[in-house]
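worker-3 :: picked DUF4369 domain-containing protein
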Amino acid sequence: MKKCSFFRTASVVAAALAVASCGKTVRISGTVKDLGKGEVIVKLLDVNTYKVLDTLTSDASGRFSYRMEVEKGQPEFVYLYHNDTKIASMLLEKGDRVSVTADTLGNYEVSGSDESRRLAQVEKDFSDFSVKFADLAGKLDGLDPSTEEAAGIRRQMGRAYTDYYRSRVKFILENSHSLTSIPVLYQTIGGTLPVFGQATDAIHFKNISDSLSAVYPDSRYVRSLQAEAKRRTDLLSLSVRLENAPEMSYPDLELPDVNSTKVKLSEVDAKVILLHFWSAADAAQKMFNQDVLKPLYRDFHSRGLEIYQVALDTDKAMWARTVKDQGLEWINVCDGLGSASPAVLLYNLGKLPVSFVISGGELVDEPLSDAASLRKLLNSLL
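worker-3 :: tokens ->
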């Protein structure tokens, strides 16, 4: 009896495991018209690249089938290709049983998945708009831009874009808990002009990101959207600050020093400020501190010079050690964002090191080619 009981228990466990495994399996069956016996390529969208999952061979009637695992709470964007043509798009959730009817030109219908049907509608709407917009652009090409005909076509293009943009805003608001909102946010006209390209669209990215993260916290698509939403909201915040900032001849900075105390550039009390951008990870730039900045500070600090040195490093501990080891007595700040620091954008930095001189609240328009020219300028100002 005990032996029978053991086998019954083992059978129940095995059956439970089989059901659990089966529950994660997505089944795709389909037919590609006019394909006959040919290849269907299955691709997975891996955030911003496509990964080939498998290459299927259809039967003589163009029928094929495929199975894949999808984790709970992590729907996947899966696409079918024939050669280089995308013939179907799907957003698949755990346990979906999907049927696809397609042709080799990219026309398709999908059943068995509400999210896939919604994604198909998203792609159709975008295709219809793109064709209309491209047609108008074609009519405009070759016309004299100053003519009334050209102006009329430009107005039509503007209205077409505005109407489509508003329809997409309506879509993402109505589908804020659907992953199909993500490709809508990233649509581009002609591959270069983003539909959601305005600075204030950061708000839409943030709202959809917050809504989806509550439903799909483990989705890599949502994590990527969160990063993009943060980037856009940071830029929007920076734009607003610049717009509302008091008029100065130089962009203001407020960055943390080695004690994590934020120091504002505009509040530095000095006749002349040497604003110096550098990287503590570069040995040559550390030597510049010893060979150039220290002698300048020694000679000019008592006459009214202060140095506001901005490190564009991501390793703040390394930067802080360098400041301490080199005995840099002036203002040293670093936000730890490296090349992503707002300071890079504000001062249009293309290389390091680079210096600016601020005198009397004004940015001095004087070329600084080397240590000698910097010393000469400071002598004339102080």
